Amino acid sequence: MSLISWFKGRMFCDIAIDLGTANTLVFLKGKGIVLQEPSIVVINEGNGKVEAVGNRAKNMLGKTPANVRVIKPMRDGVIADFEITEKMLEFFIKKATNNRSALVRPRIIIGIPTGITQVERRAVKDVALRAKASEVYLVEQPVSAAVGADLPISEPTGNMIVDIGGGTTDIAVISLDGIVFNHSIRIAGNEMDEAIIHYLKKKYNLLIGERSAEIVKIQIGSAYPLDEPLTMEIKGRDLREGIPKTIIMDDQEIREALEDVVFSIINAIKIALEKTPPELSADIIDRGIILTGGGALLKNVDKRLREETQLPVFITDDPLSTVVLGAGKLLDDLDLLKKISRL
Fold first, then answer.
1. Which of 40, 114, 216, 231 makes the best surface tag, with the fewest CB within 10 Å?
2. Each residue of 306-322: pLDDT tens digit?
């Protein structure tokens, strides 16, 4: 391997990762987002072997035999299973870099929720180092999202960003390269799926799986009445008869199912607005609230928030990727990275 090839490999080896509860995204310097897969691992309990990771693992949800276990190693934005997260991260890094990380230890930036503890931060860093990283920088997800959304975070003005992920909703007011105020709740997209499962079980005695609930949420879920009503055929198991059953549901019922979760998220945003310093509140009135994360894709969530707060509300161009795109930009701005990264 020539010296020029080595430097080329090094240049394209630094990576940014959004290690999410629901999905993991990987940004490769010089190439952009190269991987976006579910944070799921399938383990054979008989021999301890990893059978599948990411998309392949998600396709096995609810379909595995007794000796094969589907594991979601991230819970509420933090590591619930240290060993499995390490295997998952190592798999994703190798896949994203085409195994170049075996020769060169990459510099890694990882987006983390604002509400995690020092111990949890250390766990994330240790997992990345064990996965062959040379340096690890931790950046809070709202800050990374603000960079990805091109907000002027270095200026003395208030920018409010709300990142609704799979396990956490992070609300932060950012000014002068730092978080002035933040509020984080462990209620987000996963709780929406669970709310749909619970609603169908209670009202229709119908049991559906996590994947089905997520599809229902994506297709007909909403936070505010739609212009055109939507309906969907939902298949599951009748809890009384124990046989397959199909029902037709509309968007109004799913909105009812999601109401408690949506209310909790909006209430958290209101708390953050109440506690924001008055000097920055004026900026938020002018600039509005920026929504990002997979939860921002829930239909009409921006309209509901606009009605509740009487403030302008905007959704980023690519809510699912905003955090990792921001982390990717930080790979080219090490001065800013060092200012905003957390130990």
1. 231
2. 999 999 999 999 999 99
